[in-house]
Structure prediction request, 302 residues.
Amino acid sequence: MWKPYRVSKSLSKASLPDGIRVYAIGDIHGRSDLLKLQLAQIAVDESLYPCARTIIVFHGDYIDRGPDSRGTVDLLLACAQMREAVFLKGNHETFVRRFLDTPNSLNDWRVLGGLETLVSYGLRPSLSRDHSDHEKLSEELRVAIPAQHLVFLDSLPTSFTCGDFFFVHAGVRPGLALAKQSDDDMLWIRDDFLLHGSPFEKFVVHGHTPVAAPDIRCNRVNIDTGAFATGRLSCVVIEGTDIVPLLDIRDWMAGNSTRTDETPVKHGDSFRTLRREDRGLQAPQATLLPDAPHQGSLRSLY
Prediction:
């Protein structure tokens, strides 16, 4: 079982307004099974720790790579009917509209897991790169995808602000005011953002670049743990000045806390946020550190 460290009030100056709690969920990528588990754990957490107002912020990349993109969108739409939630756009959500409007974009989409999304909508994409085959497949998707799904994917915002926190899929361009950030950067940026160690205008909560565990820094937290490949969909609870990763419901026992309460370990200008415990034996869990912006074993998850 893996257990995260807690960022204490003395180490995190960013704060949410009183009475508000945010559950921030990382990249889902077609893993509706993991999303169901995460929503169940949030419900348990809310019952154990009541709060006046709770908001779930989903950080985009709901589709592609994993086996059930359609089921994931269905689940998100159901969630929107039942509770307050914010659904941010990820870079992968842009490909559905692109493919419908420009069928040849399938060549780009397929390398990012687009074929898995088409299969989830009942289509049978081939490996053909012929333009006429792409056009036919595009028209089949137009018929197969529910109108409500298309409206959802087309209307997603690129960012959300609450208190001192800025929620976004990929990150922001350093040195540029948040109000002037481009959609392209907020959906795709990597190194220029990840290697920036100084404070941003607000504390940034993001996904997009997979890490082995939720990575809490002095200026941002990365919550993308490569769910489609690792089987681990991460969620952090943000309340006041605290940022606490939620325990995986599969590692949780009824009657115990859904959270951990450990002292953060400072590592240079970052916080080593996670460790793995297996029946009392501890082994370090890799995190994204300043001198290793991309763990090699996770490059294939981008």
Summary: The chain has ten helices and 15 strands. The first strand starts at residue 2 and ends at 4. The CA atoms of residues 32 and 72 lie 5 Å apart.
